[in-house]
Design goal:
The complex is a heterodimer of chains A (about 110) and B (about 110).
Chain A lengths: L3 E4 L2 E4 L5 E7 L5 E7 L5 E8 L2 E5 L6 E7 L2 E6 L8 E8 L8 E2 L3 E5 L1
Parallel strand pairs in A: 2-11
Antiparallel strand pairs in A: 1-3, 3-8, 4-5, 4-9, 5-6, 7-8, 9-10, 9-11
Chain B lengths: L4 E3 L2 E5 L4 E6 L6 E7 L6 E6 L5 E4 L2 E5 L5 E6 L8 E8 L7 E3 L3 E6 L1
Parallel strand pairs in B: 2-11
Antiparallel strand pairs in B: 1-3, 3-8, 4-5, 4-9, 6-7, 7-8, 9-10, 9-11
Classes of the chains: A mainly beta (about 110), B mainly beta (about 110).
């Protein structure tokens, strides 16, 4: 099945911890993204990588560090988690970085206690 | 920051009714997408419109891109419970590294 997959689906952790979310796509796309969806369902881009190069870095705290080991993977590491980081994080991918609609993964619901 | 405003925010209707959801912005987009998101899932792309005035149909769903490429509408005919979900519009700029700006969403509930 060709898709964007993320792990874990749910992540519950204490404030101050460090956690990672993994993302893989087998669609052959060269661009990958991380989006954050808040409790009001507003979806906002965080990062975008094209061929492993960072091309979009929105105003996101330095505690968030994306890593792209290859074109098919884009992981998100979060240091010193805060209550306000609780949200659903979506990985997405597209072919090309110019105006192509991204295809989304199933999301990771992060809850910081 | 460019904003996309969707209206209405919430819509609850009976099966068989028609409805229209609007997506408005002051910005001109290269293309505009409509997504549907179900609980616990990621947004799923329904359509992309590119040309001003373009109309696309997907079974009972009709999508229109405004002439000036600043707004769009989604019309559903004879809504069914399976249409229930969060509908998101997103505008994309060809010159902005493909960044999509999402609207604030319309939550649709279709009651049987």
């Amino acid at each position: 099945d060709t898709a964007v997959s993320q792990t874990p689906k749910y992540l519950v952790t204490q404030m101050g911890n460090d956690k990672s979310i993994k993302c893989e796509q087998n669609l052959g796309h060269d661009t990958m993204y991380w989006y954050k969806q808040d409790s009001k369902k507003f979806l906002k881009i965080m990062f975008s990588y094209n061929n492993k190069e960072l091309i979009i870095n929105e105003t996101v705290p330095n505690r968030f560090s994306p890593k792209s080991p290859d074109k098919a993977h884009l992981n998100l590491h979060i240091n010193s988690l805060e209550l306000g980081d609780s949200a659903v994080y979506f990985c997405a991918s597209s072919q090309g970085s110019s105006g192509r609609a991204p295809r989304f993964g199933p999301g990771t619901r992060l809850t910081v206690l | 920051t460019q904003l996309l405003e969707q209206s209405p925010q919430f819509l609850s209707i009976q099966e068989g009714e028609n409805l229209t959801v609007y997506c408005n912005s002051s910005s001109v987009f290269s293309s505009l997408q409509w997504y549907r998101q179900e609980p616990g899932e990621g947004p799923v792309l329904l359509v992309t419109v590119v040309t001003g005035g373009e109309v696309k149909k997907l079974k009972r769903l009709t999508f229109q891109f405004g002439d000036a490429r600043k707004d769009s509408s989604l019309h559903i005919t004879a809504a069914q419970p399976g249409d229930t979900g969060l509908y998101l519009c997103a505008g994309t700029y060809n010159t902005n590294a493909g960044k999509s700006t999402f609207g604030d969403g319309t939550t649709l509930t279709v009651k049987p």
